Amino acid sequence: MRYVRYLCIATFAVALISVALANRGIVTLQVLPVEVSGLFAVNPSIELPLFVVILGSILAGLMVGFVWEWVREYGERAEAAKQAREMRRLQRELAKLRAEKNEGKDEVLTLLDQAS
C-alpha cells in the first residue's frame, strides 16, 4: 500500500513539473481594476510565469476548501466534544455508584460485580 501511495505522489509531481515546464511564459495578472487601483495608488498588475498563476490558483482553491470544510464541521466537532464530556461524567457517576453499592462487601465479590 505504501508503494501505491509513493507512485501516486510521483505521478502527481511529474504532472505538476510538466505543467510548470510547459507554461513558463510571462503573463500580466491584473490584481485590481484600474479604477480601484487609482484610489489606493498601487500598481494593479503583476508579471508572473503562467505556471505560478495556475499552481497558485490551485493552492488558493485548496486552502479556501479546507477552511470552508473546517468551518462547516464545527458543529459536529462541538457536539462530539459535548458527548465525550457527558460520557466521562456518566462514567465517573457510575464508578461512584458502584463504589457505594459495594461498600462493606468482600473484595472478591466487589471485583466480580465490577467485571459485569
TrEMBL record:
Domain Lipopolysaccharide assembly protein A: from-to ranges: 33-101
Domain of life per record: Bacteria
Keywords tagged on the record: Cell membrane, Coiled coil, Membrane, Transmembrane, Transmembrane helix
GO cellular component: plasma membrane
Coiled coil segments of this chain: 80-114
Residue spans crossing the bilayer: 46-68
InterPro entries for this protein: LapA_dom (IPR010445)
One Pfam short name: LapA_dom
Descriptive protein name: Uncharacterized protein DUF1049
Organism: Sulfitobacter guttiformis
Classification lineage: Bacteria, Pseudomonadati, Pseudomonadota, Alphaproteobacteria, Rhodobacterales
